[in-house]
Amino acid sequence: MRFTIAIDGPAAAGKGTISKAVAAHYGFAHLDTGLLYRAVGARTLDGTDPIAAAKGLTAEDLEADNLRTPEVAQAASKVAVIGEVRAALVDFQRAFARRAGGAVLDGRDIGTVICPNAEAKLFVTASAEVRAERRYLELVGKGTEIDRGTVLADVKERDARDMERAEAPLKPAADAVLIDTSDLAIADAIAAAVAAIDAVRPTE
Question: What structural domains does the chain harbor?
Answer without folding.
Answer: 4-198 (3.40.50.300)
